[in-house]
Design a protein that fits this description.
CATH topology of chain B: Rossmann fold
Distance between the termini of chain B: 69 Å
Radius of gyration of chain B: 22 Å
Largest sheet of chain B: 8 strands, mixed
Oligomer: heterodimer
Number of domains of chain B: 1
Structural class of chain B: alpha/beta
Radius of gyration of chain A: 26 Å
Shape of chain A: elongated
Strand order of the largest sheet of chain B: 1-2-4-3-5-6-9-10
Order of helices and strands of chain B: HEEEHEHEHEHHHHHHHEEEHEHHH
Structural class of chain A: mainly alpha
Number of helices of chain A: 2
Largest interface: A-B, 27 and 32 residues
Shape of chain B: globular
Distance between the termini of chain A: 77 Å
Number of helices of chain B: 15
Largest sheet of chain A: none
Strand content of chain A: under 5%
Strand content of chain B: 5-15%
CATH class of chain B: Alpha Beta
């Protein structure tokens, strides 16, 4: 503990911030394991990947007429 | 006409391949530029934090801290050499994760695992993985383990007059080092693993996220070719969303302490300096290891032959971080009962995944034990 008023404020901030960090870590730890979060995250990721694969395939298809038969 | 058509096809096919390949290579170039941008941003944040306390900015910090030389280079990696700086005790080969740069082990002159090992008489060799580029989707574990790692071990043994190196593996590099030790037991003197996942079904939140019903690795690689570091990093950040704010508050609070600010900039710059996960290896890593848990179950095959951990007979030190959220402790602990080594030890330390190599406390309390263990099992030259 600090003897000065500024030091006391700093100590109070540190302990409050440490408590917030612990609580935030616990909450986020629980959230990322929650089955609903997992389902939602998996759905969003799948949508993103499908979109990205479609874009990649479209790019490849745009070149296909010029590429000729594979040897 | 036939000849013209053939020439046209050839040119267009080459152009097509060029653009496809340039896509992945450009992606790698983007990753490098992005890492430089992040480093500049972190130096700016550090300068602001220092200014808050009326102090001058810190000197720039750029990548690996200590001088080293290039020993060998192939398409997948550079083998770097940090020479021993005292009476020679033996050689070490460090295998880092495929997606992270190795220099978390050489972060700052005063906080360098490699520097400490070299000061204790070890010739330290480290594999600096290259960005996979256009070849990434076709690469497999065998290219790295039976190819680059085995070649590096042979080169080190030749330079050490036949003495085999001890191998240190960190994170995913540890998993690869364990597979290497199981497939090539004659090529290493000892094996030390740090924060290494082996039982992937016990590896915490990453095991949940990569469940077969939730994540399709083939779709991801069809979409990207190689797994971009930005996508992986966003996943790691999701594990602790409050972490980014906490770090900034701590930086502002500790701005007067130059050593803390240097540590912040060096570590955060390293965290943002990643390379893409080679697509072919990523498919295997997720499907075979995370989803099938094949290494732990003894069903993994590589290049048509099994990876049998019972063939890992080298002396083994398995270092587990008790607060590791990337590789949960039970995932690492699972290794010891699976191997054939008679000389094996589990060493547990109260820190996080990165704290194993990048914290002052681990340098003071953990690494002296690891170094002593290595000294007992390494010889300076072959007999």
């Amino acid at each position: 503990m600090s003897a000065t008023p500024g030091g006391a404020a700093r100590d109070a901030f540190r302990s409050a911030f440490a408590a917030w960090e612990r609580a935030a870590a616990e909450m986020s730890g629980a959230a990322v394991r929650d089955p609903r979060t997992l389902e939602l995250g998996a759905g969003l990721m799948r949508a993103h990947l499908l979109w990205r694969r479609a874009a990649t395939d479209a790019w490849a298809a745009a070149w296909a007429p010029f590429a000729g038969p594979k040897t | 006409m036939g000849t013209l058509r053939w020439a046209e096809d050839l040119i267009v096919v080459q152009m097509h391949n060029f653009f496809r390949d340039a896509g992945l290579a450009w992606a790698d170039a983007f990753d490098v530029a992005s890492a430089h941008g992040a480093r500049a941003r972190l130096h700016t944040q550090a300068a602001l934090a220092r200014a808050l306390h009326g102090r001058p900015p810190i000197a720039p910090i750029a990548g690996p801290a200590l001088p080293h030389e290039l020993t060998l280079e192939d398409d997948l990696a550079r083998l770097l050499h940090y020479p021993a700086t005292s009476r020679r005790r033996g050689s070490l080969l460090i295998v880092a994760s495929l997606i992270n740069r190795y220099y978390v082990l050489d972060l700052l002159p005063e906080l360098s695992v490699i520097g400490s090992l070299a000061a204790r008489g070890f010739d330290v060799f480290v594999l600096d993985w290259k960005a996979p580029g256009a070849t990434g989707p076709d690469l497999g574990f065998a290219d790295y383990i039976d190819g680059t790692i085995a070649r590096a071990a042979d080169v080190i043994a030749r330079r050490s007059k036949g003495a085999r190196p001890a191998v240190i593996g960190y994170c995913m590099g540890g998993t690869m080092a364990a597979m290497f030790a199981a497939r090539h037991p004659e090529r290493l003197a000892a094996l030390c693993l740090l924060g290494t996942p082996i039982d992937f079904h016990a590896s915490g939140v990453l095991a949940d996220w990569t469940r077969r019903d939730l994540f399709d690795a083939d779709l991801a690689m069809d979409a990207y070719g190689n797994m971009p570091p930005s996508l992986m990093q966003s996943g790691f950040q999701l594990m602790n969303p409050a972490g980014a704010l906490s770090k900034l508050v701590a930086l502002a609070r500790d701005g007067a302490d130059e050593s803390r600010v240097r540590h912040f900039v060096a570590l955060e710059s390293w965290l943002e300096d990643n390379i893409a996960f080679p697509g072919g290896v990523y498919r295997d890593y997720i499907r075979t290891l995370y989803q099938d848990n094949a290494l732990c179950r003894g069903t993994m095959r590589m290049g048509g032959t099994p990876v049998d951990l019972r063939r890992l007979t080298a002396p083994l030190l398995d270092v587990v971080a008790l607060r590791d959220h990337i590789c949960a402790p039970p995932s690492s602990r699972a290794l010891l009962p699976l191997v054939g080594s008679k000389d094996k030890r589990l060493l547990e330390f109260d820190t996080g995944h990165i704290g194993l190599t990048a914290s002052h406390r681990s340098h003071q309390e953990l690494w002296p034990t690891i170094t002593a263990w290595l000294e007992e099992r390494c010889s300076p030259a072959g007999s």
